[in-house]
Each structure stands twice: as C-alpha cells, then as structure tokens.
Amino acid sequence: MNGPFQPPANGGGNHPFHHLRKLVNQWFDERPLQKLFETLDDYFAQTFAAAYIPIEVKETKRDYQIIVRLPDIKRDQISLQWHEDGLQLVIDHHETIESSDDSGHVYERRQQRRRVARMIPFPYPVAEHEVKASFQNGTLVIRLPQKRKYIDID
Asked: What pTM, to 2 d.p., does this model score?
C-alpha cells in the first residue's frame, strides 16, 4: 500500500468518473461555448491593447513640446483637462458596428465605448494661459514656454 498511485490498466472505461469526464469534455468542445471563449478573448484583447497613450517630449531653448501621435482619433474625441501640475489627456471612443446579410438586413449591432486617460506632468510650474495645444493630421502637440535658463558653455 505504500507504493505510488497507479491508474487503472484498462484505460479508465470502468472508472466511476469516466462518464462525468466525458460530459465535461463534451461541454467544453461544443461550439456555443467555444464562441463564448473567443468573444471573451476578443474583449480582453481590445480592452487592454490600446490602454496606454505614448508621448514624445522635445525641449528646445524656446519651448517644451509634448507630442502625442493619435492616427485613428478625431479631434472631437480628445479633451485636455488642466491640473496645477500637469494636463490630463482623455480620449473617448464610441463606435457602432453593424453586420448585415446580402440583402441589407442588419442581424447584429454592437456599440463599443472606450475611454483612455493619461496624466502628463509638467517639468516646471506653468500657468494655464501659457499652455497651447494643436491637433493636426493625427498629431496632438502641446507647447509650454521654456522656463529653464541655459548657460552657454565655452
């Protein structure tokens, strides 16, 4: 009795849980459940894929630029909210997706909403009226006046 466990030699056909295991396997193999798992996978892939907004920073002697590339975003989806120590960039995306058959009858309609936000801190104190922003060709450029003093080195 002290030896290692050995499964039944007959392949488990007479095992008491054989029928239950077969039902569970059949349940996971059915198409509606597979479709549910695929839908959940798609949801999580779409929800977390674009949740980060990358920014690029350029600093010159004249100004400090924060560049955000948003190629698939329209101007009315973007909002900038002022905070004492930075700006909050918010992108609201709303989309209606319809599927129709050859005769034009809609058999599926989905609405998708997504909101992504990112806090962009300022490198130094800036007054609200000094911040300028423009959006053109999918690129948002936020400009701050340069307040750092640079000393020329000989």
From this structure: 0.57
Give 3's Cβ-side CA count (13 Å radius): 3
Residue 80: name the closest of 92, 72, 64, 69 by CA. 92
- pLDDT for 30 equals 60
Residues 6+ apart with CB under 8 A from 73: 91, 93, 138
Count of Cβ atoms closer than 10 Å to residue 144 Cβ: 19
Break the chain down into helix, strand, coil percent, rounded to 5. Answer: 25, 40, 35
Nearest of 134, 147, 148, 145 to residue 67 by alpha carbon? 134
C-alpha 66/C-alpha 139 separation (Å) is 10
